[in-house]
Amino acid sequence: MERLYRFSRKLLGEGNVIQLMNAIPDYIVESFEAGAAELFLPQKDKFYRSGFGAAHLEEEKMKVAFLLDEANLDTEQSEYFVPVRLGVRPIGSLGISGAQLSRQSLEAVGTLVAIAIERARAVEQLGQTEAERQGERLKSALLDSITHDFARR
After folding, report:
1. Mean pLDDT of 61-70
2. Helix locations, 57-102, DSSP H
3. Would the pTM count as exceeding 0.70?
4. Half-sphere exposure of 65 toward its Cβ, with a 13 Å CA cutoff?
5. Angle in degrees, CA 45, 75, 92, rounded to 5
């Protein structure tokens, strides 16, 4: 529980989506003393990696965990491939090796990752919306100023 809590605090500290994606595998390795971790996001068809031996995690198993929305746990090899779900919908998958984690812990990690990704996207979208609104205000003020100058002449 303590490791999950520390992991969630690290995840929720990131506001930038790109930085978060790159940091998630690092956070998993640090928080759960894993040998390697990988995050697969099919929307971007991209793998984010961390840890010693990350190249040894099979990308096909990552894709299968996402496509079948099903965990593949090899406790003898300490390799876990689990879907990352937002509600009931898979949005990616995780591969973790070299750690001893229960199925419940793995599901919790996947859920925390999904929530963090959606939170970071929402924060980023809010920032973009605010920037667009400020841009519109600036355009309006400029037009008002120009119109006022023409009216005085």
Report:
1. 92
2. 59-68
3. yes
4. 30
5. 20
